[in-house]
Amino acid sequence: MLSVSDILRLLDKIPQWKALGELPGRMAALEARLAALESNGNPGGNPDPCPACNAPLAFKGERPDPVMGAVGIKERSFACTACGYQTQRQWTASDGYI
Q1: Which of 6, 39, 69, 82 could form an S-S bond across to 2 if both were Cys, CB 3.0 to 4.6 Å?
Q2: Which residue blocks in the chain are alpha helix, DSSP H?
Q3: Cβ-contact 75, 43 below 8 angstroms
């Protein structure tokens, strides 16, 4: 008859079982990264400041690009938090801003 320790030893030889054991740590790391990204107040992820006054640009929304939307390109809108300057940038999930 197999004991629990025997079963656990057998499971430890299976690569998928080892990967399952690593998931809680990986999940915690991903949640921490997500919290850090969301805490910057800019879900659009625009790293560039306003070209007019150098203040941060705030994400306003996104929509499919009028020309390239059919292939997955989005158009993201931003507005300056200080002077009101507005701009749009093309974005893809795989490449970021293009």
Answers
A1: 6
A2: 4-11, 15-38
A3: no
CB count within 10 Å of CB 1 equals: 3
Give, for all 98 residues of the chain, the pLDDT tens digit.
Answer: 789 998 888 888 898 888 888 888 899 998 888 777 666 555 555 668 898 999 988 888 889 988 888 888 889 899 998 999 999 888 877 766 66
Distances (CA, A) of 10 to 5, 6, 16, 17, 20: 9, 6, 12, 10, 15
**Which of these, 67, 70, 68, 74, lies nearest to 91 by C-alpha position?**
74
Buried b or exposed e, range 20-53, using 16+ CB within 10 angstroms: eeeeeeeeeeeeeeeeeeeeeebebebeeebeee
